[in-house]
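hiii, so i know i said id send this last week but things got crazy w the move. better late than never?? heres the sequnce for the chain we talked about at the cafe, plus the structure i predicted for it. fair warning i was half asleep when i ran it
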Amino acid sequence: MKLEDDVVKSVTNRLRRAEGQLAGVIRMLESGRDCKDVVTQLAAVSRALDRAGFAVIASGLTQCASNGEQGEMDREQLEKLFLSLA
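okay and structure toks below
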């Protein structure tokens, strides 16, 4: 299954933001920031990564449904991918 260009662009942008957030978390740790602040930012990075994963999976499900076919990935594989993010 190949993702549509707009999905790739959206997910890539989301991952770049998460990359920046993660770099910020590293800087926070190195500068001795409060644990609460670090954990809050880590949670934000985690949510961003989850959303990127969900977008990829949702796109795959949409493609399968709109094509009326299962494509390269069957339902079990898609379910396994989805649950890996849960």
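btw The first helix runs from residue 5 to 30. thought thatd interest u
miss u guys!!
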